[in-house]
Design brief:
Layout: H1 3-6, E1 9-14, H2 18-36, E2 40-45, H3 51-61, E3 66-71, H4 73-84, E4 95-100, H5 106-111, H6 117-126, E5 129-141, E6 144-150, E7 153-157, H7 158-171, H8 177-186, E8 194-200, E9 203-216, E10 220-221, E11 225-226, E12 238-244, H9 248-253, H10 255-260, E13 269-274, E14 277-282, E15 286-289, E16 292-311
Parallel strand pairs: 1-2, 1-3, 3-4, 4-16
Antiparallel strand pairs: 5-6, 5-16, 7-9, 7-15, 8-9, 8-14, 9-12, 10-11, 12-13, 14-16, 15-16
Length: about 325
Amino acid sequence: MSSENQNIEWFVIVNPNAGRRKGEKDWPEIARLFVEANIRYKSMFTQHRIHAIRMARKYVEMGYQNIIVVGGDGTMNEVVNGIFTQSKRPSNNITVGLIPVGTGNDWCRMFGIPYDYKSAIDVITGGKTFLQDVGWVKFQQEGMEKNRYFVNMAGMGYDALVAEKTNKQKDQGKGGTLSYMLNIFSSLFSFKETMIEISVDGEDVLKAPVFTMNVGICKFNGGGMMQLPNAIPDDGILDMTVIKKLSRFKVVSSVAKLYDGSFTRMPQVKTFKGKSIVINSKPEVYMEADGESLGHSPFKFGIVPKSLKVIIGKEMQVTDTSTDSQP
């Protein structure tokens, strides 16, 4: 580690429940590796949902500019929402690293973060950074309009139903990638397609019965499914895939195509790109963002270009794009 990095003090947010309580079980090992890597840090455990939002906001306002997340995609999402809801410091002046202990770890796949703790810490001490886009979505929850930032992907319709079931199992200590796969198949016959209207950058692009939809910044969700295969995390553009009504047999027979992104060539699938996406439905459909179950339609999506500085691995292919987009 360089002498410059040695002088940095990191604020470490640990989710003890991540990865079926791997966060708690493996923290002593991770802490030992921090010491061996000469990382100076202050750590705190989250105690409940949205606690990481409050902690990130508070400690950034106290002056911390460097945060390490020990958790999964959901913990990362909360930390980013804390960063974006504080007013003391621009979001792109704060550096965020991740030690993955979650069950999905889809953000890590995009940015080349190893799952091995020592290798992930080596990535942090290496200090290679990337300014990624961050998405935001407005939605309805308990009769009120809410806002949430996300760094990976939001899913609606069937994707949200599967995520909700998996999240409930996680709360019981049973969730994981296998549970996600089982929920994909077990929920098929109880789910009904919904009539959806979509506009992209002010232009109406689709009105049809829809099975599931994804909007996002990065390529992967659901434990490695490439649901947005053309996404570029710093192009200032949201990617969207829509799977229209299709037979249950077709769903089952096409699951493998989700892992290599080839499902987008199916006639039932539409893809879109834009800076603003509006989705209306009848009846309402629900949403997850970065794996966190949230509210329901109507939805309005937007993007904040190159607004979060993240530490990435060597395998990440950094693009060289620019944009004049405004949030």
